Amino acid sequence: MRLFHHSRKCYIMNCMASTSLQSSSPLPSCLEKPLPLDGFQGTPDEVEQQWYDQVYLGSGDRMKQLTWRAVIVGMLLGSILSLTNLYANLKMGWSFGVALTAGIISFALWNAFVRLGISKSPMTILENTCMQSAASSAGYSTGGTLTSAVAALLLLTGQHMPLGTTFAWIFFIAVLGVTMAIPMKRQMINIEQIRFPDSIATAETLKVLYSEGKKAAGQAKALLYSALFAAANAIAMAAGGERWLGTVQQHILGNWYQRTIFFKWDLMFVGAGALVGMKTSLSLFIGGTVCWALYVPWLESQKLLPAGAGYRESVSWTLWGGTACMVVASIVAFLFQWKSIVRSFSSLGVIFSLSKKRKLTDVEKIETPMSWFLTGQLISLGALGYLAHTSFNVPYWMSCIAVVISFFLELVVCRITGEANITPTGAMGKVTQLIFGGIAPGHVTANLMAANITSGASSSSADLLVDLKVGYLLGANPRKQFIAQFSGIFLGTLVSVLAFRSILVLIPRYIPRTGKWLPTPIGFGLAWAIQWNDSFLFFTGAVLGWAADHLFKAKSREYKVPTASGIIAGAALTGMAILMFSIYQAAL
Predict the structure, then answer these.
(1) pLDDT for residue 358
(2) Which segment of 31-40, 265-274, 507-516 scores lowest on mean pLDDT?
């Protein structure tokens, strides 16, 4: 804590010195303003201008952000953290976002460098946002493809993809997803102001770490204590608590336990529920109850599922209803916002227009240009089409269809990530597989790799939007964040592909076989693809957050977000540590 106190003090003094040189009455920075969690009101132009005037000015226009040290540290941290995600994906099909973890590690590490005299100044809070973008890209958005389609292709053919082909395939899918997020960012973050709970947790955590004063000290304590509590809970569950709870409930609940209707204590979901809010969490709970308490028992009564069928058997039925609900809801929401979408793409018309170009708004001057979107899409489409044709015998027209489908399904994935804090890339990949099952029946490889374009690109898009939302809350320059995110793809591809090859060689030896209150269609549909107990924990967190808002209004405004953020941070960091310890134990 002493280190954090000293580094925060140095940071504040540096900021005050730099701003005083630029203006006699400097605008307050993001450290002196509350996060804009309630959003802005008005037309799309008015909403964007309010963010620029109230959030960006004083922060993004003054602080250091895109620096070599931020990008390099982010790439290195992300590459290291990607190893745990690769192992987790291969072992249990789950991965962790690395932005929050990388932000905390970077803050502590760089400030230790300052104390030791290795560095002259600590990173600014906006440098940390760029560092997180590079870390996320290197550690998260490049690894999912390896542990899904590439691993499945290995099982089908018994042969590794050529190393060069694997590098290129992973890289261009990440480019496709990252550039596809450019128009989505402006619509979902700027205009619709979707919450993105992980982004709120990350922004609040950074703000507390970098802030100074009595209020910041209280929030820092709330974050630290809740993180320690979540860490202790995660350790207790991993040490046998989860197994004990499961054994006891299995004897009592019988078939209901197999339907995932049992109590599980994972504080990460509780913290996320408090940030997501009551509407989405209640939708998850209602949807989960309808699915697992009514629909699955009905399937069993009709002999479509055996009595006591587990989650894996049941979800092969429930997934399709939930996915249909999410896809239709997201596309309908997209169509209702057609005016804003046309406005977002209008700059493409300006690029090709022969008439005099219009004057850019303040926000457009710092947003990622739509020309980058067009360039990235054309290059990645050409590269993926060529690779798919030469390596997997996929016709060029089929790759084009896969990219078009990817755009619409990425709308779904990114919206679900923003509203419910879960990225259902697997479910969206299955939609693509179903479509290509009808287009090219019997072509297993084409089906698999086309679905991989969708799921891999969706993961990259959602990951970038989570990072951009952090920057949005703190007043960062979105164009600089995009550059940092794009930079991380290079090292992330290299490390994750080489690590994947190495892990597969070691697996046989080291890994053991083991309306306000109307339900949102996104939350309701998502509940059909996840376990009931996860939906229940989201709802529990939302109820606790709602109770705090109504019973302790003043304290809740000050401490709810730091406490929920600390819970998520503590659970995530401990989850990473437990995974690394598991890797060490497996290698002994």
Answers:
(1) 62
(2) 507-516
- Asked if residue 106 lies in contact with residue 73, where contact means CB atoms within 8 angstroms, the answer is yes
Q: How far from 356 is each of 345, 353, 361, 374, CA to CA, in Å?
A: 18, 8, 16, 21
Global pTM? 0.71
Instruction: Say what the pLDDT of residue 415 is.
Output: 81
505-516: burial string, b at 16+ Cβ within 10 Å, e else = eeeeeebeeeee
In order of 132, 171, 422, the CA distances from 61 in angstroms are 19, 32, 32
Average pLDDT over residues 260-276: 79
SS3 for 36?
A: coil
Q: Is the pLDDT confidence value at 113 over 60?
A: yes
Label residues 253-274 b or e (16+ Cβ within 10 Å = b): eeebbbbbbbebbbbbbbbbbb
* 497 CA to centre of own chain: 21
Say if CB 156 and CB 448 are below 8 A apart. yes
CA distance 35 to 205: 11
Segment 164-169 shows an average pLDDT of 85
- Helices and strands counted in the chain (H then E): 26, 0
Which pLDDT score, from 0 to 100, does residue 146 have? 65
pLDDT at residue 20 is higher than 50: no
HEC string for 182-208: HHHHHHHHHHCCCCCHHHHHHHHHHHH
Cα distance between residue 227 and residue 571, in whole Å: 7
In angstroms and rounded to an integer, the radius of gyration of the C-alpha atoms of the chain is: 23
Would the CA dihedral through 468, 473, 474, 476 be positive or negative? positive
CA distances in angstroms from 299 to 253, 287, 293, listed in the order given:
19, 16, 11
What does the pLDDT read at residue 383? 92
94 in Cβ contact with 144 (< 8 Å) = no
Q: For residues 217 and 219, give the distance between their C-alpha atoms in angstroms, rounded to a whole number.
A: 5
Mean pLDDT over 146-150 rounds to 66
The mean pLDDT value for 466-489 works out to 87
The Cα 472–Cα 466 span in angstroms is 10
Q: DSSP 3-state assignment of 355? A: coil
Q: Is 442 exposed, middle or buried (0-12, 13-18, 19+ CB in 10 A)?
A: exposed
CB 97 within 8 A of CB 198: yes
Query: Please, what is the average pLDDT of the chain?
Result: 75
Cβ-proximal residues to 563 (8 Å cutoff; 6+ apart), any chain: 222, 223, 226, 271, 274
Helical (H) or strand (E) element with 231: helix 214-236
Q: Chain centroid to CA 99: how far? A: 9
Highest mean pLDDT among 13-17, 93-97, 209-213, 362-366: 362-366
- pLDDT band at 379; cut points 50, 70, 90: very high
Band of the pLDDT at 301, cuts 50, 70, 90? confident
- DSSP line for 379-407: HHHHHHHHHHHHHH---HHHHHHHHHHHH
Rounded to whole angstroms, the maximal C-alpha distance in the chain is 76
Task: Check pLDDT > 70 for residue 509.
Answer: no
Q: How many CA atoms lie within 13 A of 30 on its CB side?
A: 33
CB atoms within 10 A of CB 120: 7
